[in-house]
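Q: Convert this sequence to structure tokens.
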Amino acid sequence: MALDARTDRASSEPSIPEKHDVVHIEGNDGAEEAEDPIEAKRVIRKIDLRLIPLLMFLYTLTFLDRVNIGNARLWNLERDLGMSGYDYNIVVLVFYIPYIILEIPSNIVLSRVQPRYWISFLTLGWGLSVTFAGFCKSFGGLLTARIFIGVFEAGMFPGCLFLIGSWYKRHELLTRMAWFMVSNDIAGSISGLLGAGLGSMDGTHGYSGWSWIFFIEGAVTCAAAALAFFFLPPFPDDATFLMPEEKEWVLRRLKTDNNQTGNDGKMSAKGAIRSLGDWKILTAGVLYLAVCVTAYSLSVFQPTILKTFGWSSLKSNLLSTPPRIASGIVSVCVGIWSDKVKRRGIFCVSGFTISIVGNLLVMLLTNGNLRYMGLYFASIGIYICQPLVIAWCSNQVVGSVKRGTLTAFAVSCGQLGGIISAVVYPSKDSPQYVPGISTCIAFQAVGILAAVNMWFWANRENKLREAGKRDHLRELPEEEFAKLGDKHPDFRYTL
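A:
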């Protein structure tokens, strides 16, 4: 069921200048909006080109700088810093503490300042932290650097999702989020190659290979901060790269799509806490946690699992890339399809189901080739769900406060999946890794239940609104009625 709002618009409202034949797009209420399809595509493409490639680049660097410690470990990191026992595990896990805590506060700041200022500041902050990590002389120094990397990276992912969600109609959103999250696959594919190349500088100017990994990758991130500062677009209300009539058209279509004629204001701690009482935002956290347990497991342990097939280290590393490429392609295709048909639930449940089948093949079979096929299914299914659950849950809320809270809260819950995946794959469980894979399957089953519940409830509520069961809200004062958001009787949830 389409999620178009039913706000009446005066015929005097400006639209994009007509240069071609005009078509009429009908909303839920039968009202028609004059729109030149070629001009509309041109403006959306203009937004896409200004926003998506830059955010993809920044998020690729985020992922690389987060996981490069794994590559650095291969180049005498522990020996040089006198690390032993669980020191390395502590350094890896400590990153997640500030990352989880600071995501909602970061989005509160982002809603109050220009994105280019805040995101460029975060980029420069973690770039410098990575760079200075290369100078560390002790375990304590590296631990401090990892904490600061977590502090600055905390706002990047939810901030990017928040910004993307502010620019597009609800059924244009998943395609863009799928493209954005392809950055994971890009970073995962090149991190090993970069680690090998930069680490080979071992001994140059008296620094070990691990230091050069941090120096070079950190310096590139610092340079990227300048790109963010000069080229990252603001929220639509403050856009300067659009012509005045283009900006007005964008703002009007966004308000119409969200059925929101009033501004719900900037994010605040009070507003975020109040938003966390919305069960749809809590469901977003459950769904993204269900995704990330498997997604992190595949990212971190896939080469290890491949090696248990009896393959060499080189072959295992090389063959960990094709499933990521395949999953990236499929996730974008499903995103385009889902936006086209304006449905989310069926794709979400299907993605979790496909991934469960793949995990079962990896866990239960012994033939290496068949288990490798299982990894394809596991990867494709879960990476269908990763952008999908964020887009779907974002479709169910209205306003910058709820949208900013939702993206930050969901990503925070997702990081718990990274911690869980780090402790459920001990070496003693090789080669089938039954406890770890069973944990992934269990969380995916919870994801299916949460998705079915969202799907069922959204369908029920839409039917009640069609039957006029929420029309009593029309008697509210005009100012309150305009700010009902997803409670508006004309608003329709995405199925």
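Residues 35 and 181 are 30 Å apart (CA to CA).
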